[in-house]
Write a structure and sequence with these properties.
The chain is of the alpha+beta class. It has two domains: about 100 residues, no CATH class; about 110 residues, no CATH class. It has seven helices and eight strands. A five-stranded antiparallel sheet has the order 4-5-6-7-8, sandwiched between helices. The protein has a three-stranded antiparallel sheet with strand order 1-3-2. α6 crosses α7. The longest helix has 21 residues. The protein is globular. The structure holds iron/sulfur cluster (2 copies). One iron/sulfur cluster binds next to α2.
Amino acid sequence: MNISEEPLGDDEFTPRLDIRSLYDAFDAPVTDFDCGAKCAPYNPHGVPFCCDICEAVPVAYLQEWEYLQPRTDLWHIYRGDECPDDPDDPAEVWKETPEHMTLLACQGAAHCQRRFRAMSCRQFPFFPYLNSAGEFIGLTYEWTFESTCWVISNLWSVTARFRAEFVAVYDAILGMWPLEYASYDLASENMRILFTEKRQRIPLLHRNGQDYLLSPRSERLRRADLRGWRSFGRYRA
Ligand code: SF4
Ligand code: SF4
């Protein structure tokens, strides 16, 4: 996969990404059916939670925005008033946005253009999990969406193709972009701290294709059948 046009650098280094190659290499849906049909009925707005601006504001690399802006009318820069029920103070939200990223809003699920989905759409609800030795060992989920995302309650449904593409793309990104590596290293550490407090194990879709439960304290991995693993809120079996 060739997604970069420049070599490795130091912590301030931002690699030049080939966004189209990145998107083409990471195009598999999370499940082999429309998981949006599983969650949308529970959303008062009637759309999948991950495509509802009132639930999640999409972020994108600045370089994605450079790529997307002249090619599609799908996206605009987030203004803060897109969710009428719960408007944001844009200044506050932008303050928390890393400098190499931008906040966007799309035209909504009914007008999605799959070819121009952002990386954050493609990876949802997962992020690359790094152990305390800094090794990218697999995928785990964004825990703030436990109660809304059906997939998190049904991790068995994630396809092998999605997992393989995720691992290949993040091997490339983390290998060339120290800032992104540091950001996911921190997210993984935060998850270990939180799950230690909650006394819960972390489900891991391992890069070897197997599923595990990870002890957040000892980081010991135990093979698991995630079909019987925890489900949340309205998705409780
Ligand atoms: S990834 Fe989760 S939130 Fe998004 S459509 Fe599928 S089940 Fe719904
Ligand atoms: S671009 Fe498509 S996948 Fe991404 S948030 Fe919008 S509707 Fe959802």
